[in-house]
Amino acid sequence: MTNENKRILRLPDVKTRTGLSRSSIYAKVNEGSFPKYIKLGIRSVGWLESEIDSWITQRVQQSRSAIENQRS
Known about the structure:
72 residues; 3-stranded antiparallel β-sheet; 57% helix; elongated
């Protein structure tokens, strides 16, 4: 894992990158459909940038596959 892959994103950055709200992010974490956060302190958490990027890539692929399936 390179240093770039080890970058930790805080909630505002995760919200901006994903377009999801705070409550949606935590709901998806709890249901297992979003990367788990990393505890940084008593009241702070973050997410690995590489895991967020992978999640976004998967969502794009799922969306495009669904569109192609509808056209078939």
